[in-house]
Amino acid sequence: MSVDGWNTVLVLGGIRSGKSEFAESLVTDAPVVRYVATAPEGDPEDTEWAARLAAHRARRPGSWTTEETTEDPRRLADVIESAEPNEMLLVDDLGGWVTVLLDPDHQPADDVATIAELAEAIRGCAARVVLVSPEVGLSLVPTTPLGRAFTDALGAANRAVADACDAVVLVVAGQPVWLKPAPTATERSAPTTVTAPTAAATAPVVASLSDTEPTPEVQLPDVLTPTPPAAPTAESGNPWAAPTMALPMVSTGLVIQPGMELPMPDEYAGPQAVDRLATLDVPGAGLGVLDRVVGFAAATQGTSTPVAWGSVRVLLLHGDHAGGAAAGTVAGESARRAAQARAGQGALARLAAESGASLQVVDTPASAPIEDQPALAPEQVESALRYGWRLAEQAADAGVQLLVLGACGAGTEAAAAAVLAATAGAEPPAVLGRVITDSGEIDDAAWMIRCAAVRDALHRTRRSSRGAKDILAELGGGDVAVATGVLLGATARRVPVLLDGPIGLAAGMVSRDLAGQARHWCLLADHGGHPAVRLAADVLGLTPLLDLRMDLGEGANALVALPLLRSVLALSAALPVHPSLTGTDDTDPAADEPESTDPSYADPDLTEPDPTEPDFAEPEPAGPGPASTGADEQPASSWRAG
User: What integer pLDDT is reported at residue 401 of this predicted model?
Assistant: First the structure.
């Protein structure tokens, strides 16, 4: 396809920026695509590089043809120059091409002349071409001659190709920014997040808010919780009281749209906190990999001496997925688990009670069979996103310092696999975990039904947009949509989120296309053995702290790890500086003993949603259970996020 008459496009971006996925989205509508691979195979012992190449190959549709130019870098210009007018070429990428060009096996070679030949071939090409290349010059100058030669050659290639192409786009953190041609006066006046020239781009243009029609609202299920709601506060009628940042509003409330500017954690506090650990009187080798917990808490709290999270709230999202996604599950089992949690029973409620955390069960809209139809209507997606945002707002207003996100529902793993396939190019069988029956047996037939459901859903939506809201409507469903809203709302109020399970990670994948800052407020304690969690964590840059391989249900694994994380933070805050760094030799143990604090943890009451908001139903009070039996006082060292 051409992009508004542009036949040649250069897609630039850093490592893991999403440039290849964006380039592939530009050619999805083309009937015939010739993929030109330029990267060398590399060292046979380098399994990580081989896995990257395999992931790229697996992401290509079966209708594409592949052509290799690794043996002769000069051949790339010949391929482009000889392409027919009805062809679509996708060249990925120029970084690999320059690597081969500078390889000693191809020397002596005039790389300047070869780059010039490539630029001329692009100018005279009759076919439509999309080229991918890493952007250079944004980091330090390499310290080796070979490294400097590579950056110089790649920079020269990028400049020459950008000059020859009709359009140039820079992908930063998954967000495309069009550099060429310059936006028109109309485009400059519109408050768009990305000046995208085509609907095929992953971040659609957002219309002016003054021209936006109010979105129809869908009534969501009641929010049930083991603690009675507090009395309404005497605030103004605005349900978005004291937001962290100014966000776009219309008559129906908050506008959740791609490219929102949400806050980032403190970029200096995290490294300072980790450096401070090296000065403490810690025996042995210190905290090991758990120093990342200290850095994360410091960045999200905005201080180099973070304290342990006192007030913690668990959000358990309950919503079923119909059709083949739920194959192998017992009817009514998820409802039983949700009712059990409401009553303060079961593993999740017991662990919440032990940790002094409040537990809130949230009923999300049921999702239709994705193999036959969209999981949700567009208006349901809008309402679910706002509902999740409001849940995070409620938590921040109640003084919650950490959210734990979990889910229970039939078909959640298949829904997460579908989202990963749409956002990261994953193959459904690779990210769908085995189906285990109640008797502990492996149900391969149910697993195959789930794979088929996801495959059919992807085939049904192969020509639809891959925007965040479209993915939620077509594939994700109610629980993923509400979880996405929770992540965005928590980010806006500077509340960190402890993820646990496929639904939370799938929401993280979707939220990055709405606000890329959200993933920086997320922490992953354990992958739980889920292949979908492993892949999504790798894409989002979240490294699991533990490898316990427990499977107690979403949210429970995080609560098992929570006391350990709290202990690490408490230790880092209480230990003194090593005497060798202070110039003293104080051996009095009483001098180093910190003041005692109340060891209890607060269990704040949940703020009742504003009944005037169409997104929310009146909450039903429920009797208190073990999950809500924490102390009623805040600890002396508590901090207020947001």
Answer: 94
